[in-house]
Design brief:
The chain is an alpha+beta fold and about 180 residues long. The protein has two domains: about 100 residues, N-terminal domain of the delta subunit of the F1F0-ATP synthase (Peroxidase, domain 1, Orthogonal Bundle); about 70 residues. It is built from eight helices and four strands. A four-stranded mixed sheet has the order 2-1-3-4, with helices on both faces. The longest helix is centred in the first third of the chain and has 17 residues. It is found in: Cell membrane; Membrane. This is ATP synthase subunit delta. Its main location: membrane. Keywords: ATP synthesis, Cell membrane, CF(1), Hydrogen ion transport, Hydrolase, Ion transport, Membrane, Transport.
């Protein structure tokens, strides 16, 4: 995250707190993140120096027209300051700042196949136990290259119990013993 994105995120979080619309803005930021991740064309348009600011603003208002006034104001400020390319970073930073403020731990578990509801509940319980936090959000990423097992990331901590990792360790042990 860039420093500018973090500053914008903190400002919009403070504004949302003042207006009592933090949860609505959080929903908007989740929507912004998902939309930008799913649309390379939109990301390219925001990064393009050729597209005029007025056109960028029109595009973003079209896409996020149902958002809160705070989110639409953020879009306007970013476009007016020639920082539209920061929108995704601001949204991600907002979510991070919201989680920090509410003591919510964000965990990501990478598996070879999607988690079942039962496994997801077990992973959530384990993360809650490990972090001591009662509030945990869990994101499941699917990466078939890990073959099996899982990789769990909570904050700066990573636990790698994937088959690919274990095979890599075995390979290193064999090559070191030769």
């Amino acid at each position: 995250m860039s420093r500018a994105a973090i500053r914008y995120a903190k400002a919009i979080l403070d504004l949302a707190k003042d207006k009592g619309s933090v949860d609505a803005v959080l929903s908007d930021m989740n929507s912004v993140t998902a939309t930008l991740e799913g649309s390379k064309e939109l990301r390219d348009a925001l990064n393009s120096p050729i597209i005029k600011a007025t056109d960028k603003k029109a595009i973003l208002r079209q896409v996020f027209g149902q958002s809160t006034p705070e989110t639409l104001g953020l879009v306007d400020v970013l476009v007016d300051n020639s920082r539209a390319d920061l929108l995704g970073g601001v949204a991600a930073s907002f979510i991070t700042e919201y989680n920090k403020a509410n003591n919510i731990k964000a965990a990501t578990v990478t598996t070879a196949v999607p988690l079942t509801a039962e496994l997801e509940a077990k992973v959530l319980a384990k993360v809650t136990e490990l972090t001591g936090s009662t509030k945990v959000t869990l994101t499941n990423e699917v990466d078939e290259t890990i073959i099996g097992g899982f990789i769990l990331r909570v904050g700066d901590t990573q636990y790698n119990a994937s088959i690919a990792s274990q095979l890599g360790k075995l390979k290193r042990e064999f090559s070191n013993s030769l």
